[in-house]
Design a protein that fits this description.
heterodimer; A: alpha/beta; Leucine-rich repeat, LRR (right-handed beta-alpha superhelix); 3 domains; seven-stranded mixed β-sheet; two-stranded antiparallel sheet; 17 helices; B: alpha/beta; Alkaline Phosphatase, subunit A; eight-stranded mixed β-sheet; two-stranded antiparallel ribbon; 11 helices; 16 strands
Chain lengths: 453, 500
């Protein structure tokens, strides 16, 4: 408050030195007086706070002296405005006060919000990455991670450090190093190895949010349930600062929590259908030409150069179309050619699309000869040959495709007698022969009538 | 021109010149210092986030062109089966033996205090389950005898047993479920999806609506409206009897060439208009004319189920030529096969209050179940065997649930057994497209009155559907009237518990 009042006083004083704002001078002495008193009050209350609470000693010291000098300077300035003799000659007094106010304000900000309260948001503006602070990065492998540094410390860092860290030690508690954690705060230890649930740190985390002793305070970001579970687990295993996660005893209920630490965010590519290796962008010209042919072609997701193609509105595939596909063979991973004129002859070319993971050629005239062409398409995972002339003989040709895990052969020429042979040749693949029957019950075609009420 | 006028004109010219001469470069810099600074600051803040979340490019000339999702989705299409009127979860999936013990007793006061019901007044009686239940499949899911077919495929489905909503009247609750708001004016789920993804088959609408049961849903056509999204994304209602889309046939005396010529002429005129006014809605209109022309050929073909083989009709229990939910379900499969993005089915007649025999839990409700059980089961299995289930998301549900109490409309005994509207617990299920097989999430209390755990709300269901299609519901937004809108508004959580 003194900062605001004094700044306004200085601003008005400066403005009133200009001819057209002369009238602004009137409130200046009064503002200075109020600012002076509030600065003195702030000094006293600040001193009391610095005794009761544990802030960074160095910054507190500076803040204290700067605050005092602000108060002193404002007294001098007030004397000057009141035309008290000794102060009249101090010409640069307002400027000095301005500088002092700025330094004091900055130090105060550093104390309450952390020393990077200014630089962090600015750095945030200029950096491209969205997450700078307060997010916990997923771990590559939770079991290999060091329990304290990789799992526990980030939780403390994002939830506790702002009050119990290097700059501030509320309740004389410091959580940013091992000695601080073990020593506890002014009420004693925060960790109880015998009764983990009774540990001050756990107890306070679990208190209702509106309880005064609940930590972190209601208005601060709260840790998640899984984070509390992790803290509890870490304490129960002896609060070790060096051991890896896998070296610590892990109860069953912790496994999913640990696994969640390495879970990738939603927006990361699904590796089962989209390859992880990056690929360069396909030539725009090829894509445009394919589109002109009425072929539906688009990237599988934003930011991905991998492509999906669908011949849903173009049932007459020409050799030229396939040549165009070959031009984007690096990027093309999903291909739908169902209900088209694809035949064994065209399969000879289609097999060159070596990155295909999903291929649908249902209801085409492709037979065993055509399907055998795919035997070197190692990346193939999904194959739909519903309603084609493909038989067991053709599918047996695909036994080396280790990735192939879904094959649909409904209405194709699969002989039930050869089923076992097929299953042994393609043990990993789920082969769906379809022909599901939904029986017709008497009730399906009749209606219940109401009895006369 | 009089001398005076001439003089005035000269004076005016001179004044103008003076004004212009004041507008120097310095003047420009001085006047625009704030503006330029703000611009620079804006671009500074802008660089923080190079890929703005909403970079769906609306191309008015090709509004339905397929677009890519935010991340590779599991689902390419959605079939949403809405049982309009709200089926009773207590006679279908939510087995409550405790409720049976309370059958006929007065409802405890604790369940009524501070609650409002659509029709129940005073103290109603409790009503035990009106069907026998059994566990089915490897997932041991409870399904009643009302759905004998569906109970054979529970291992393909994931149940949500504790869905809640906050609207107890049909129209607002349906709007809530499909548009994320109980009031009119928001885009429906299907509109959002076609806006975000376009559609793969340019000869068919991207968002098709099929209704059965003799009536449209209570919320009317707004449940498939496009709200503030461009109108091209609204659902196209097709009929399963007569012309699938009204006025799609050429009028008598007009052949197809003449039709083409007239559409070309209209489009040329519209092109001229567009050159003059640059209004993207004109391009939209042009593309709609063209689509209508293409649809004249492709829609009657795809909407005709009579050319399906007999074993398919046997499987679905379909009879071509009449309006039925089963026919619509078979159509939905055909549309998915043809690359239609979103197929919305509404089946009216599930509002089992017990006021009439159609609305009786032991009469009309049983018949409704019989109409949907076989064909829905056939749909799941047919999609599965055609290799379409893992890229088609099937959603089943109503707009709310029904009370564990017997309805006593206006405090009186009703002629039949029925239940009132209930917002605090009902069951929905999803299948296909990355949904866990044989999953179940959420539980109700022991009498099925309210959610005990795993509670979800319509926003969560919408978020999950969008997630399966490749959208982060929090980043899928449309700027309208100065603020970004999203389907899930400020809520919504992807129900990861039912994802495979």
């Amino acid at each position: 408050m003194p900062i605001g009042i004094l700044l306004i006083a200085l601003l008005l004083q400066w403005l009133s030195s200009k001819e057209e704002y002369r009238s602004f001078y009137a409130p200046v002495p009064f503002l200075l007086l109020v600012g002076m008193f509030s600065a003195i009050v702030a000094c006293i209350s600040g001193y009391l706070l610095s005794i009761s609470d544990d802030y960074n000693k160095e910054i507190v010291g500076w803040h204290q002296w700067m605050g005092l000098s602000v108060a002193l300077t404002s007294i001098l300035l007030y004397c000057k405005e009141r035309k008290i003799q000794f102060a009249l000659r101090l010409r640069f007094l307002p400027l000095v006060l301005l500088v002092l106010i700025m330094i004091t304000g900055h130090l105060g900000g550093s104390l309450t919000h952390g020393s990077d309260y200014l630089s962090a948001p600015i750095a945030d503006i200029f950096s491209d990455t969205k997450e700078t602070v307060a997010t916990i990065k997923p771990l590559p492998d939770a079991q290999e991670a060091v329990a304290y540094t990789d799992v526990i410390q980030p939780i403390l860092q994002t939830r506790c450090y702002s009050c119990h860290g290097p700059n501030k030690q509320k309740g004389k508690l410091r959580l940013d190093d091992s000695t601080g954690i073990m020593k506890g705060g002014k009420d004693g230890k925060i960790i109880d190895f015998q009764h983990v649930d009774e540990s001050e740190i756990i107890k306070r985390l679990l208190l209702p949010v509106d309880n005064d002793d609940h930590m972190p305070p209601r208005e601060k970001p709260q840790p998640g349930e899984s984070q509390i579970t992790l803290l509890h687990w870490w304490i129960s295993t002896g609060a070790d600062f060096n051991k890896k996660v896998k070296e610590l005893n892990q109860p069953e209920n912790l496994k999913p929590v640990l696994l969640a630490l390495q879970e990738v965010p939603d927006t990361v590519m699904d590796v089962t259908t989209v390859p992880v290796e990056p690929v360069e962008k396909a030539a725009n010209e090829s894509i445009e030409r394919l589109k002109d042919q009425g072929i539906v072609i688009f990237p599988v997701a934003r930011g991905s150069n991998y492509l999906s193609a669908n011949f849903v509105t173009d049932s007459l595939i020409t050799n030229e179309d396939i040549e165009l596909l070959l031009a984007i063979k690096k990027q093309l991973i999903w291909l739908k050619m169902g209900f088209t004129n694809v035949d064994d002859e065209k399969m000879k070319k289609i097999k060159e699309l070596s990155n295909i993971t999903r291929l649908s050629i249902e209801h085409t005239s492709v037979s065993d000869k055509g399907i055998a062409e795919l035997r070197s398409n190692k990346k193939l995972q999904f194959l739909n040959v519903v309603g084609t002339n493909v038989s067991t003989k053709g599918l047996l040709q695909l036994k080396d495709l280790k990735e192939l895990n879904n094959v649909f052969v409904y209405l194709a020429k699969i002989n039930q007698a050869e089923w076992n042979e097929l299953k042994t040749a393609l043990p990993a693949a789920q082969i769906d022969t379809g022909n599901y029957i939904v029986p017709t019950f008497a009730s399906d075609t009749s209606e219940v009538k109401a009895a006369q009420p | 021109m009089t001398r005076k006028e001439l003089f005035n004109q000269q004076l005016q010219n001179e004044a103008q010149k003076t004004v212009c001469s004041l507008n120097t470069r310095r003047h420009f810099l001085k006047e625009s210092a704030m503006g330029l600074g703000a611009l620079a600051l804006g671009s500074l803040f802008g660089c923080k986030n190079p890929s703005s979340p909403n970079d769906i490019i609306f191309d008015a000339a090709h509004p339905l062109m397929p677009r890519f999702p935010q991340f590779p989705g599991k689902a390419r299409s959605v079939i949403y089966l809405h049982m309009a009127g709200a089926p009773s979860q207590l006679e279908l999936f939510d087995y409550k033996p405790e409720l049976m013990k309370m059958d006929g007793q007065d409802c405890p006061q604790s369940l009524l205090e501070g609650k409002r019901f659509a029709f129940i007044r005073g103290i109603p009686k409790m009503l035990g389950p009106q069907a026998k239940f059994a566990q089915h499949g490897d997932s041991r899911a409870w399904v009643s005898e009302r759905m004998p077919h569906l109970s054979s495929i529970v291992d393909e489905l994931s149940f949500l047993k504790a869905v809640t909503t906050d609207q107890f009247n049909h129209a607002p609750a349906q709007l809530m479920m499909h548009t994320g708001s109980q009031r009119l004016g928001r885009p429906s789920l299907g509109s959002w999806v076609t806006y975000g993804l376009g559609t793969e088959n340019q000869n068919l609408p991207g968002f098709v609506v099929l209704t059965s049961g003799g009536q449209n849903p209570d919320a009317g056509k707004s449940v498939w409206g496009s709200g503030f999204l461009p109108s091209v994304y609204q659902g196209v209602q097709c009929r399963s009897v007569g012309d699938p889309v009204l006025f799609i046939k050429d009028p008598d005396g007009m052949d197809r060439d003449l039709r083409k010529a007239s559409i070309d002429a209209i489009n040329t005129a519209n092109q001229e208009q567009y050159k003059t006014f640059n209004d993207p809605e004109i391009l939209s209109r042009i593309s709609q004319y063209e689509m209508a022309y293409k649809m004249q050929i492709s829609v009657p073909d795809v909407m005709d189920i009579s050319n399906e083989p007999d074993y398919v009709h046997e499987m679905y229990g379909t009879k071509p030529g009449r309006e039925s939910f089963a026919n619509n379900v078979l159509l939905a499969r055909k549309l998915v096969e043809k690359g239609v993005r979103f197929i919305q089915l509404f089946d009216w007649g599930w509002d089992s209050h017990g006021a009439s025999s159609e609305g009786a839990l032991d009469v009309g409700f049983i018949n409704k179940c019989r109409q949907v059980d076989k064909c829905i089961t056939a749909l799941i299995l047919d999609l599965k065997q055609r290799g379409l289930l893992d890229e088609t998301l099937v959603v089943w549900g109503g707009e709310f649930g029904r009370t564990p109490m017997l309805e006593n409309r206006e405090g009186k005994k009703m002629p039949y057994k029925g239940r009132d509207h209930h917002t605090e617990a009902f069951t929905m299920w999803m299948a296909g497209a990355g949904i866990k097989k044989g999953g179940s999430y959420g539980e109700t209390d022991e009498i099925g009155y309210s959610a005990a755990n795993g509670k979800v709300e319509p926003f969560d269901i919408q978020a999950t559907i969008l997630h399966q299609l490749g959208f982060d519901h929090e980043k899928f937004i449309f700027p309208f009237q100065g603020r970004p809108f999203r389907l899930t508004d400020t809520r919504g959580r992807v129900i990861k518990e039912i994802l495979g």
